[in-house]
Design a protein that fits this description.
Elements: H1 10-31, H2 35-60, H3 66-86
Helix pairs in contact: 1-2
Amino acid sequence: MAGSSHGHTPAAWVGVTIAFIGFCISGAFMVMAEPVGFWAGLVVAALGGVVGWIMSAMGMGKDKGADARFHELARKALEAEKAAARG
């Protein structure tokens, strides 16, 4: 997955960061036995997904055709490497 730049976009980073903060909030309030804070943290975590989706829709996410182009280039490079090794 590292070769395809999976998730390396501003939309992904912001969405995951907000969700992580929400889970931290929720976990802290769960330990303190405060149900309202727990649910508020889960709302923040869900908000992370919404923000990531909106940012992706605004063009800050991954290009939809990027995977196909990457795999095509990787296939061509592999074929060229095999051809060079043969001959």
